[in-house]
From TrEMBL:
Lineage, highest ranks first: Eukaryota, Viridiplantae, Streptophyta, Embryophyta, Tracheophyta
Protein name: Reverse transcriptase zinc-binding domain-containing protein
Gene3D superfamilies assigned: Endonuclease/exonuclease/phosphatase
InterPro entries: Endo/exonu/phosph_ase_sf, RVT-Znf
PANTHER family to which the protein is assigned, alphabetical: BNAC02G09200D PROTEIN (PTHR33710), ENDONUCLEASE_EXONUCLEASE_PHOSPHATASE DOMAIN-CONTAINING PROTEIN (PTHR33710:SF71)
Stretches that traverse the bilayer: none
Organism in which the protein naturally occurs: Rehmannia glutinosa (Chinese foxglove)
Record-linked Pfam families: zf-RVT
Chain ranges of the Reverse transcriptase zinc-binding domain: 391-470
Length: 500
């Protein structure tokens, strides 16, 4: 069980366990509670093959059971990946193994899914897979070789022990994990790890790790914003864009864009591939160089090295931030406005983040009661503003006392409060003009002129209608200074307030 917990297995095949069918339910209840099983105990008195699986993560369907093999169809509930798996325990003599090879050939001929055949074949495939003992004859290898050729079975990538069985005098590779051509055609990738047998058995236990399934399709071209920060980006684009192309305007545009794909992909591979690893390595090199420079501060070579590495590290860190920002933004735009689990999780997260679940009462004790939290807020603002106060008193509360120099012009007592609030938000860049409402599907053009995207400076200074208003105000107040942004207007008002 410690072995099972350590390796986090979901499907287990046990061979030659020497259990009887009568004691199996008790063993399952004691050691594998909640798991399901299938076996071929009814076909052989020695209890040859027992297959266990966790039904919470795997769906396993028995396809065929024989004395030497159990064929199953397995579907992972997490990734929805489906495959066929055969658990094999071959007999010990050449003649008795012939039904096994016939069974595998018959099953493989009708197989159209990725198939992995794993277990103790009790047969070596090559003469060099045996050390010591009697010489291997071609008769021993023939049946196994023919079966592999007919079914297109090849060894799965493996690591660990080269010889999987030993009696301390003879070493052989009897245990194998083999896959068919559909395994590779459908982009499956896995690894077989043959561990030392220790005291469990004279066979090496094998663990199959199914890696991420990669579908073999042409990946679409994606433009990454981090490429723009590279010093050669503009020259690269200009060189390929200025190539002569003959045809219609639309054909020329498509052809030039297509010509840019390969250079941009090469730029990405050379300078931005595995961006997180590059950024981490640059940070490590910078830290190591800084420690060396600390021990030898007069070393000019180290000074130049640290300066170069600091620049490189900052550049790669910014590229990494840009990459993940673009990736998160694409995911948000694609999924956040749909009724998906992602959307609902996003709503729940924002709700929890914006919710005040606890406050301290007047006596200093915290409370998490929703009713008491509401009462404490109500009591606080009643004491602050009074029960019948209007919104003007609330504005007065938020207006700073002893107004700082920076905000002296904004928070004048004679300025209507809502005007002060609008000016304050505009200076801090937080006024909700249409260019900031990117998450809403609305017309981004100015509400006054309707021709240019609405930004803060355009709305208040650069719009044709706003310019007419300013022209009349400046003529009335005899203002000659040109003001095109809110900051320049504030600077002028501060200057006038000082009388300079």
């Amino acid at each position: 069980m410690n072995f099972l917990r350590h390796h986090k297995l979901d499907v287990i095949g046990l061979l030659e366990i020497k259990l009887v069918e009568e004691t199996l339910p008790k063993t399952m209840k004691t050691w594998f509670a909640g798991w399901k099983h299938t076996c071929n105990f009814h076909m052989h008195p020695a209890g040859r093959i027992l297959v266990l699986w966790n039904p919470s993560t795997v769906i396993l369907e028995e396809l065929d059971i024989s004395p030497q093999v159990i064929h199953c169809a397995i579907t992972c509930k997490v990734s929805s990946v489906s495959l066929l798996e055969s658990f094999i325990y071959g007999y010990h003599t050449i003649g008795s193994r012939k039904p096994l090879w016939d069974n595998l050939i018959s099953f493989g001929e009708n197989c159209s899914l990725p198939w992995i055949a794993i277990g103790d074949y009790n047969n070596i495939l090559n003469a060099n897979r045996k050390c010591n003992g009697k010489d291997v004859t071609s008769k021993e290898l023939k049946d196994f070789e023919e079966c592999c050729v007919l079914m297109g079975l090849t060894n799965l990538r493996s690591m660990g022990c080269h010889f999987t069985w030993t009696n301390n005098e003879v070493w052989c590779k009897l245990d194998r994990a083999m896959v068919n051509k559909h395994w590779f055609d459908q982009g499956f990738d896995g690894m077989a790890n043959f561990l030392p047998s220790v005291c469990l058995s004279n066979h090496s236990p094998c663990i199959i790790s199914l890696l991420d399934v990669i579908i073999n399709t042409n990946r679409p071209f994606r433009f990454f914003n981090m490429w723009v920060s590279h010093m050669n980006f503009n020259d690269l684009v200009a060189t390929n864009w200025n190539l002569y192309v003959r045809g219609t305007k639309q054909f020329m545009l498509c052809k030039k864009l297509k010509n840019l794909k390969r250079p941009l992909k090469e730029l990405n591979i050379k300078h931005f591939s595995h961006i997180s690893s590059r950024a981490a390595k640059a940070n490590e090199d910078l830290e190591r160089g800084q420690l060396q420079l600390h021990d030898d501060p007069t070393n000019m070579d180290l000074q130049n090295f640290v300066a170069t590495m600091r620049k490189q590290s900052m550049s790669l860190s910014e590229a990494e931030r840009c990459f993940y920002y673009q990736q998160a933004k694409c995911k948000h735009l694609n999924q956040s406005n749909r009724g998906t689990k992602f959307f609902h999780d996003l709503v729940k997260r924002n709700k929890k983040r914006n919710q005040i679940v606890a406050v301290c009462k007047e006596d200093g004790l915290p409370t998490t009661s929703i009713d008491e939290v509401a009462k404490e807020f109500t009591k606080f603002y009643e004491c602050l503003l009074g029960e019948n106060s209007g919104c003007s008193k609330a504005y007065d509360y938020f207006r700073p006392r002893g107004t700082p120099k920076v905000w002296a012009t904004v928070w004048r007592h004679y300025i209507p409060p809502k005007h002060s609030i609008i000016l304050w938000l505009g200076i801090k860049g937080m006024l909700q003009t249409k260019d900031r409402l990117h998450y809403m599907d609305i017309d981004r053009n100015c509400a006054l002129c309707g021709t240019v995207p609405e930004t803060l400076d355009h709305l208040f200074f650069q719009c044709n209608m706003t310019k007419q208003v300013w022209l009349q105000i400046k003529k009335w107040l005899r203002i000659t200074r040109a003001m095109s942004t809110i900051k320049s207007a504030l600077k002028y008002m501060k200057k006038e307030a000082r009388g300079t």
